[in-house]
């Protein structure tokens, strides 16, 4: 890139999150934000070149000041571009009818067992062609960006045939190539046992292990492999086989664990060394301890608990146990149809007992680690990719306190202004 340097000046708070690039930030250290008041950033060639106070940068920049496009961030908060480490971005259709059914007393699992839920979105996604899926998903990605998110993870799992899983992953790849937001892809063929395998789930697991995983790996379409480990979906034993098959092909393990019922998903994540265990609403104390010891990142999804009217994961307990916690929207049409990481941060504070500082760490550097990008994004440090969000609030506490409003002022991706 040969664009003009960008100089962001005089931020009332520049939250660097410095120091966590090598490993996820665990326990109480999640409160250390590396705040610089009257902060300044020099971005060049898509990277962060200088970070410091405005006085420090003014002295260092000297005569080069005139080359730069200047963004005045006085009175504003500057953070790393937010990272969403768990989404079901690529899908077709919506399920507001199920929302209404749940408000009339039906449960999420009842709806799914009657052919709705994931099955309904699978039918819609199978029926949609590549272009339709691309357009629907791009709209969501545009909204993510408007809410300050510069990287998202995206899962397949609404195809559940080889062809339709690949279609979803190819849409994600095209979005990654063409959209300002970067995408990290996860294969989730084991999202549900499709209706046609209802009476022979083992045959479907064989299909995932013998055909889908090898083909996805061969085409380089995903970095992670995820499973919905839940009573009535995939057992811990089945989940383990599917995740180990992925690891053997170079796909790192993630797991939807202990979302609806306690099912020893956290324990499984620790036993197999998964990169992350996600949801964890009903994780056991033993599972939390095991994840802390094994270095599994807990990806918590308080929007899902909120939307399913369930009790949230105990983020406080996990951090106090020494875990690294990340947070995410879980953006999907059934259990969390939102794209708002700022709302998720607020729910992290109010529903999971996390501090405003901890949720910001969870939405940036720890989220980056949950998708293997801790060395490139998630903090404002010299040499890192210049992904930056500027919020029109004076400090990070206000961002989560004045909730339900989009405070995003400017977003820069790889040093270029993409939202203004
Ligand atoms: O993370 N739990 C499984 N998968 C999604 C929901 C998918 C859907 O309902 O379409 C989740 O909550
Ligand atoms: Fe999910």
TrEMBL record:
Indicate the principal place this protein occupies in or around the cell.
cytoplasm
Q: Name one Pfam family in it.
A: Amidohydro_1
Group of enzyme by EC: hydrolase
Annotated binding of 4-imidazolone-5-propanoate, by residue: 95, 158, 191, 259, 335
InterPro entries, per the entry = Amidohydro-rel, HutI, Metal-dep_hydrolase_composite, Metal_Hydrolase
Q: Which GO terms describe its cellular component?
A: cytoplasm
- Asked whether the keyword Metal-binding is assigned, the reply is yes
Q: In which pathway does it act?
A: Amino-acid degradation; L-histidine degradation into L-glutamate; N-formimidoyl-L-glutamate from L-histidine: step 3/3
Q: What does this protein do?
A: Catalyzes the hydrolytic cleavage of the carbon-nitrogen bond in imidazolone-5-propanoate to yield N-formimidoyl-L-glutamate. It is the third step in the universal histidine degradation pathway.
What is the protein name stated in its UniProt record?
Imidazolonepropionase
Which organism is the protein's source? Brevibacillus composti
Q: Which gene produces this protein? A: hutI
